[in-house]
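pinned: reference chain
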Amino acid sequence: MVLLLVVAMLGVAAASTAFLLLRRSGPNSAEVLRRLHIVAWGGPPDAPEPNTADVSKTEVLSKIPWLNRWLAGIDIASRIRVLIAQADLDWSVGGLLITTVFGWIGSACLLYLRLRAIAPTALLSLLYVPLPTMYILRCRKKRFAQFETQLPEALDLLVSSIRVGHSFMTAIGFLSQESRDPLKAEFVKCFEEQNYGVDLRTALLNLGVRMPVQDLHIFVAAVLIQKESGGNLAEVLEGLSQTIRDRVRLKKQVSVHTAQGRATGWVLALLPVILGVAMYMVHPEGISILWKRPIGLKLLYTAGGMNVVGGLLIRQIVKIQV
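pinned: its structure tokens
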């Protein structure tokens, strides 16, 4: 006991001595550092720097500070932000997360008030979770399709501008003024990046990152190769425009021929769900056996899994890459 008291007293004395020494040497050390900073930079470290501005772009993932800090440390948040930007939606990653979580909780509460069973409530409420992300992907796909449809006309405009003697970036400026969204917005960004000092290669590569469309990647590669090796850029873009038109026409023909298969997949996937809801509205006691008894839950889970697998198989069969 006495030994412990001695060790504690020595520890307190050592800590007090170290604190006093550091406190005494602190102002002197700070003064030395301040003088060194004056010699090196011509002014004290706390002096304001005139005519300086922070032009770095700060990405805000959420308006809630703690959620923004948490999302900034997650790698998937940057990928979701790219998807939202490609879909041209005025959303944030934090807003998407909050919408998904609270929508899932709200749907679960409503379903539980109706079903009074935890297992089917949890299973059915999970169907809401991918809906906001699916909406983003649908808007993104629709925007890419519009961009791909507008690209041949944009290339024709570039060819006409280059043949009358304009430079490539001047033709891009005309294109950004005369075209329609979404192609206009993306080429405006490309034109502004080049005007702000970004080299042409980086501006075109950024355009390809924002719009990961195969035809646009071919356009970027053709322009970069022509800039390095030379050649008639107008003829290259004219041939590329005709190739893109042929690809778009072929994709539409394939979509027409596979329309029946895609409709069959949707009908087979949604028919069990619609029939189940209809039977519940007509005779709730009869179909409630599926989630009130163990054998019913097994059958329900098995049928749901088989329905999802069947829908994915049909989608893979009718999905043809052009």
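why pinned: Residues 1-29, 47-56 have pLDDT under 50 and may be disordered. Residues 169 and 191 are 7 Å apart (CA to CA).
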